[in-house]
Design a protein that fits this description.
- The chain has 414 residues and is an alpha+beta fold.
- The protein has two domains: 145 residues, Sandwich (Immunoglobulin-like), CATH 2.60.40; 171 residues, Four Helix Bundle (Hemerythrin (Met), subunit A).
- The chain is 45% helix and 20% strand.
- The strands form two sheets. The protein has a seven-stranded antiparallel β-sheet. A five-stranded antiparallel β-sheet has the order 1-2-3-9-8, with no helix packed on it.
- The relative contact order is 0.11.
């Protein structure tokens, strides 16, 4: 085993490597932080001058007090908050099909509520609330949702090549920074079942300032980096370090140095994952308590593992056995919870099949390697137990070669 003296001889190089890795990880983290990337779009004097009195019913005709902001392509969002009432008008280009605006907790479609408007084939204006319970058409439920509409009927009308969707919400707490979804489809809803959208986007709209920041260019990049760091750190690097510690102890002291360095590199990637997750939470107020809680718990376990490296007792110490038990089982717990959390994160983010296949491939490789090495280790132990007493195991579980007398006894005895 590696002793404390040999460890102190290499710690300067180890610290340099860790510092370089911290710099790399937090550069990746900074790429995902959209706090300074690009200006927000202000609301003043940037929308078309439209006379709503000619085609919308009251109270949507009076827009003199409404704030207007271009939000996506040529979409315009007008709103006015008066006490607990919020009036919203969405204007969008239109020929046929439907146009919708959704309100989400985390910028994702699943779990959001949307107001959708269209003009039927017979020229009838339709506007309905939908609850987006899932991604399938059957999971988009009409006349359901969490938007509290007041007694003023919602309205939808066309004016030239535009459609205008107007409604009022009765809010207990006025909107501030709110993730909203914008989408349109080119087919008429059949029996109030929406066709798949042709295009969509998600933005975080600041109702208190009338500005908007694109989720697609900033927060989605942060979310992507969050997932990449999690898969690299928790899904690849840390399991490799654990495999080295369990199956390569006969390569002493090389296994110890590799295990320590690899695990610390994986820890910095895991730390970067949590930092990005906290940034996402502060910007989007993402309500995923299980994912957030498990992530913090796994980070605490990994911090305890790093501390255990520096508090490692000598192998002759009375508490070394307790330390070994604590270090191995806390490490296993951290890896198990991290794997669960990666799956939860992909599910919450609505990750595509490429993410699932990619992580499934990495996870599968780790499991197969661990199973193969475990079987080989078991066969080796079984083989060693079946050898004559002259064959003894070394202190770390590897085979000790027999002495010259034993070789003579094996090969030259008649």
């Amino acid at each position: 085993m590696a002793n404390s003296r040999s460890w102190t001889q290499i710690w300067p190089c180890f610290v340099k490597l860790c510092v370089l890795n911290f710099v790399l990880v937090f550069k990746i983290t900074a790429l995902g932080d959209g706090s300074g990337s690009g200006p927000t779009v202000t609301a003043e004097n940037t929308c078309k001058n439209t006379n709503y009195q000619s085609f919308l019913p009251p109270p949507y005709q009076n827009i003199s007090q409404m704030i207007c902001t271009p939000v996506w392509h040529t979409y315009e969002l007008r709103y006015f908050q008066n006490g607990d009432t919020t009036t919203i008008i969405l204007s969008a280009p239109y020929t046929i099909g439907w146009v919708g605006i959704g309100f989400s907790r985390d910028g994702m479609m699943v779990g959001s509520s949307a107001m959708v408007g269209w003009i039927s084939k017979h020229g009838h204006a339709k506007i309905k609330q939908f609850y987006l319970r899932g991604r399938k058409q059957s999971e988009v439920i009409i006349d359901k949702g969490e938007l509290l509409l007041n007694n003023i009927p919602a309205a939808v009308a066309t004016n030239g090549a535009e459609i205008h969707i107007a409604f009022q919400l009765q809010m207990t707490t006025p909107f501030q920074k709110q993730p909203i979804l914008l989408a349109f489809g080119s087919k008429y809803p059949q029996n109030h079942h929406l066709s798949k959208h042709e295009d969509k986007t998600a933005i975080v709209f600041d109702f208190s300032a009338g500005s908007t920041g694109p989720v697609s260019s900033e927060l989605i990049q942060m979310r992507t980096n969050h997932g990449i760091l999690a898969i690299i750190g928790w899904g690849l690097i840390l399991p490799v370090g654990a495999i080295i510690a369990r199956y390569f102890r006969h390569k002493d002291p090389l296994w110890f140095y590799l295990h320590a360095i690899i695990q610390f590199v994986g820890f910095t990637f895991g730390l970067g994952t949590v930092v990005l997750g906290l940034q996402l939470y502060s910007k989007m107020h993402v309500h995923i308590p299980a994912h957030r809680g498990i992530g913090i718990f796994a980070l605490v376990l990994s911090i305890l593992q790093v501390l255990a490296l520096f508090l490692r007792p000598n192998k002759d110490s009375k508490i070394r056995k307790i330390w070994n038990w604590y270090h191995s089982w806390f490490g296993r717990m951290a890896l198990i919870f991290a794997a669960i959390n990666i799956v939860l994160g992909m599910q919450a983010a609505g990750a595509g099949s490429d993410w699932k296949i990619g992580y499934g491939f990495v996870f599968g490789i780790m499991v197969v390697v661990a199973i193969v090495l475990e079987v080989l280790a078991y066969l080796k132990k079984s083989e060693m137990r079946s050898l004559p007493p002259n064959f003894q195991l070394d202190p770390v579980g590897g085979a000790t070669f027999p002495s010259n007398q034993a070789l003579y006894f094996l090969f030259f005895i008649p």
